[in-house]
Amino acid sequence: MGPIRRILCLPTSLSSLVFFLVSATAPGIAAAGKDPALTDDSQCGCYLNKGNSSTYFTYHRFFDFRSLPQYAGVPAVIQDAESSPDADPTSDYFKRDEWSSFWLLGSWNNSNGARPDATVTMVNSPNNVYIEANTEPDPSSQTYLTLRTQRLSDFQTAAEIESASSGFKYLSLRMRARTVGAAGAITAVFTYRGSDMLADVQESDLEIRTADKRNLVHYTNQPAYTDDGDVVPEATRKATMPHGLDWTAWAIHRLDWTPGLTTWYVDDVEVARIAFQAPRDESNIILNAWSDGGRWTGNMTRFDAAYLQVQWLELLYNSTDPDETKRSRRRQQQDGDGCNAVCSIDETPELGTPVLLWKNGPSQVNGAGGRSVSTGSVPTWGVVVMVLFAMELLI
Ligand SMILES: *[C@@H]1O[C@H](CO)[C@@H](O)[C@H](O)[C@H]1NC(C)=O
Ligand SMILES: *[C@@H]1O[C@H](CO)[C@@H](O)[C@H](O)[C@H]1NC(C)=O
Ligand SMILES: *[C@@H]1O[C@H](CO)[C@@H](O)[C@H](O)[C@H]1NC(C)=O
Ligand SMILES: *[C@@H]1O[C@H](CO)[C@@H](O)[C@H](O)[C@H]1NC(C)=O
């Protein structure tokens, strides 16, 4: 914990004393004792995320589907397998650079026998990814993104979005989402690094099986089974949603992939963590809604459908993709790997907009971890504040 973070969570009377001292006499650490100030990504050198898997990330993206009425509309399902993959994007939203520089709309099918126990042809179609008006009573958003899967006469139409970059290496992904619809489908968000060899696949999953009890979520670091079909129990956890929630209700699902560990949260409550087989190498990000009549998904009844609906999706990440710096609205004046301005998307009063936690002194260019106040310029009141921190730490 750095000094400013410490101030942010100071409890009780000491904090008011610190607040008084700081606000009365300390222009230098003016941020201390106050709520951190809203800023924008161009001012952030890195981001510190909150929680048991707290760590630093370089990049931030926020996809907000809550107020897009100009793009809303539910496209009729394409009934024919052959023309499904070639469907156009369902609205101009998916042609906007903000979207298309980051995501691809999936159009592959399972004819390659990817899952040997599939009993139904599954075809992904861009037509199943769309912006939808929220018609629930007292809606918590005007619109959301929907990924649709439906069982048709002779195939299963499905939806997938995949990151254009396969260079993600560590991330914290959060989305406000729900799954609705009939049994026999999977909705999922995961990191993915494919391989022809099952044993070499690297993948951290959050999966909802619509045939399950409605408060059950599956978290897995794949592979969870061997070539011989044996289950690998250490790879997977079944967790119950906290606060009595069902996955049909809006909740913030979060997946943190950090070195050697994947941690999952629902509404800020840690629900699972798996160190076993945590992905090691750069990966894609994928969201999907699908079924293939196999053992994992189950069979969907003809003309039934299920949906993954997302109000917003926010990402903190690192990347090995050389184009990433160009693509992101990153702070221009970086000092090598250093992080002069540490931001947060957790402490913010405005979803999607970061706040500045602290700035490191001009001499602090020693990486994201370097976050001490540069001691050469700490005047007397600073020392008083630091003594109070020390006392606080002892209490
Ligand atoms: C499935 O994919 C294969 C290989 O890409 C392609 O040849 C075939 O036309 C596709 N079938 C459908 C129904 O999309
Ligand atoms: C952090 O992990 C501990 C168990 O190791 C757990 O009790 C606690 O609830 C977790 N914190 C959060 C914010 O989920
Ligand atoms: C799904 O239905 C097919 C026949 O249509 C059947 O062969 C298969 O066993 C069923 N799968 C499950 C998981 O029930
Ligand atoms: C992300 O990159 C920054 C800058 O290189 C580094 O300080 C930080 O530790 C990285 N985060 C993770 C989770 O590896």
From TrEMBL:
Keywords noted in UniProt: Hydrolase, Signal
Record Gene3D superfamilies: 2.60.120.200
InterPro entries: Beta-glucanase-like, ConA-like_dom_sf
CDD domains xrefs: Glyco_hydrolase_16
Signal peptide per UniProt: 1-32
Region (Disordered): 322-343
GO molecular function per UniProt: hydrolase activity, hydrolyzing O-glycosyl compounds
Ranges of residues in domain GH16: 77-321
Biological processes per GO annotation: carbohydrate metabolic process
SUPFAM superfamilies tied to this protein: Concanavalin A-like lectins/glucanases
Domain of life: Eukaryota
Descriptive protein name: Glycoside hydrolase family 16 protein
Species of the source: Thermothelomyces thermophilus (strain ATCC 42464 / BCRC 31852 / DSM 1799)
Lineage: Eukaryota, Fungi, Dikarya, Ascomycota, Pezizomycotina
